[in-house]
Specification:
Layout (H helix, E strand, L loop, with lengths): L2 H4 L16 E9 L10 H18 L11 E4 L3 E6 L4 H5 L2 H15 L12 E9 L14 H10 L2 H8 L8 E6 H9 L11 E7 L2 E8 L6 H4 L13 E3 L6 E3 L5 E4 L9 E4 L34
Parallel strand pairs: 4-5, 10-11
Antiparallel strand pairs: 1-3, 1-4, 2-3, 5-7, 6-7, 8-9
Length: about 300
């Protein structure tokens, strides 16, 4: 057996197999509008992130050896941590809710002029996969395809748009869970959350393409009144072109999806959310999809006669 196989992992040698790095639960958080804060505050804002994560872990009851990370690195405007894969369900529930509560409490306690802690909002991504881990928290720990994927998820346009559509005073966390982590934690039942609280989205960031699941622990703002932006789906009453069809149909005939909500708004709605249960509508213009001019009142959909 070669030295590469006998050693921990070793440097890659073309044509020689290597041991698979350990499977790791990956957590990445990214602060919203970090660059919008004055540079003089960047260091203190970044330094506050691990304390916030630790406080949320304690709030969720994930502390001690269970909540100890394998590696722990700043990303400049965010943070990345690696945990034992057994911790993955706990990072979905109760950690995400606890992180929302921790940020909300800090926001309430901070004065508006206290920039480092005022109105901190986070996009969060969770993934599970093999990454390098020396056990010494080295800068290169966490390297691997799974690390690339979890950063692409947190940078995705759906995560950014959903946070933008919520009330900054009410919603502080939007989470993107990879398909692998979703299957292992939510579908399996280990996270003890219903699948209806997660919405499937196609994610494309640069050359990365994948499926992921969006979860909002506490929805608000436009997420309640207008709904969750879904590519290629228009608001109720707007005509849309269906793929593979030359005919336009009324979008009100389509089921719509909302993250959260209270009661029922409109008809044919479906529910996905955290705090609340309710309906949702979506708008194709949110993702650059085609949107035709709205019809005048009483005008039938195109392709139909009066």
């Amino acid at each position: 057996m070669s030295a590469n196989l006998r050693g921990k992992y070793g440097a890659p040698v073309p044509g020689e197999p290597r041991k698979l790095p350990p499977y790791t639960a990956l957590l990445v958080v990214d602060l919203e509008d970090f660059s919008g804060r004055r540079g003089v505050y960047h260091q203190s804002v970044t330094a506050s992130i691990p304390a916030i994560l630790d406080a949320a872990l304690r709030r969720a009851g994930i502390d001690g050896s269970v909540g100890r990370s394998r590696f722990d690195h700043s990303t400049g405007d965010g943070w990345v941590r690696g945990y034992k894969p057994a911790v993955a369900p706990l990072l979905v529930n109760p950690f995400l809710r606890a992180l929302e509560e921790e940020l909300a409490e800090r926001d309430r306690q901070a004065s508006p002029g206290h920039v480092p802690t005022h109105n901190l909002r986070m996009r969060v991504s969770l993934h599970v996969g093999p990454v390098e881990d020396s056990g010494q928290n080295l800068p290169e720990d966490g390297s691997g395809d799974a690390r690339v994927a979890v950063h692409r998820l947190v940078d995705s346009e759906p995560a950014r748009r959903i946070l933008d559509r919520s009330d900054p005073a009410a919603t502080h966390v939007v989470a993107v869970v990879s398909a692998r982590a979703y299957e292992d934690t939510v579908v399996s039942g280990y996270a003890a959350l219903p699948e209806s609280l997660f919405h499937r989205m196609d994610i494309t960031v640069k050359s990365y393409q994948s499926v992921a699941y969006i979860h909002v622990p506490r929805s608000s703002g436009q997420l309640l009144t207008e709904g969750f932006p879904v590519p290629g789906v228009a608001s109720a009453g707007d005509p849309v072109d269906l793929p593979g069809s030359s005919e336009n149909r009324d979008a009100s005939t389509f089921r719509s999806i909302r993250i959260g909500g209270v009661g029922s708004v409109g008809s044919g709605s479906n529910v996905v959310g955290g705090d609340h249960v309710g309906p949702m509508v979506a708008n194709s213009r949110d993702f650059g999809g085609r949107r035709d001019r709205p019809r005048r009142s009483g005008q039938p959909p195109r392709g139909q006669s009066r």
